[in-house]
Amino acid sequence: MTGPARILLADDHALVRRGVRLILDAEPDLTVVAEAADGSEAVAQAREQDVDLAILDIAMPRRTGLQAARELARIRPDLRTLMLTMYDNEQYFFEALRAGASGYVLKSVADRDLVEACRSALRDEPFIYPGVETTLIRSYLDRARRGDPLPARPITEREEEILKLVAEGHTSKEIGDLLVISAKTVERHRANLLQKLGLRDRLELTRYAIRAGLIEP
């Protein structure tokens, strides 16, 4: 690679983006060349821009960082991704790995860990933030010993998209327009979600979406 690595930074908080950009642009081998305020914009930017690494916040509007990472793995398999999050959560960590991410960095220690995480990702090496390795490895080994699978995704990617948009307050017609499906199909997915998750209404779906990190409280 000639010149500094080109980075796409996606976070819905402009202040966070500014802080992270200051950290990265201070390094001679890293430079932020594109920014996005949500997951959909991040995917669009990655299609248009020549970038080597995408840093994605997990909880963003329209499309989460995990949803964006899955899409980027499909359309830009050469692009490395890192997840940036406020949540120290084992489930998110496994979801990030499943989505093809090279690592998972906590915002609270981004000033300490992010540069190293970027360099690891660009070398095609995984980055696990300090302190989590022992817990995760023990948890993984315990599961393997018991013959249990890794934590399962309770809902499909399409159901996750619809759940997020319902929780954000969109109507069935608006969701249908955004996802290019009929309002009736949206209603069917919504009914399936309620049944599958054992929930009763939009309020409970919204609470579930917050707990799952699809939207911020």
From TrEMBL:
Residues 148-213 form the HTH luxR-type domain. SMART domains: HTH_LUXR, REC. Keywords: DNA-binding, Phosphoprotein, Transcription, Transcription regulation. The modification 4-aspartylphosphate is found at residue 57. Residues 6-122 form the Response regulatory domain. It comes from the Bacteria. This is Response regulator transcription factor.
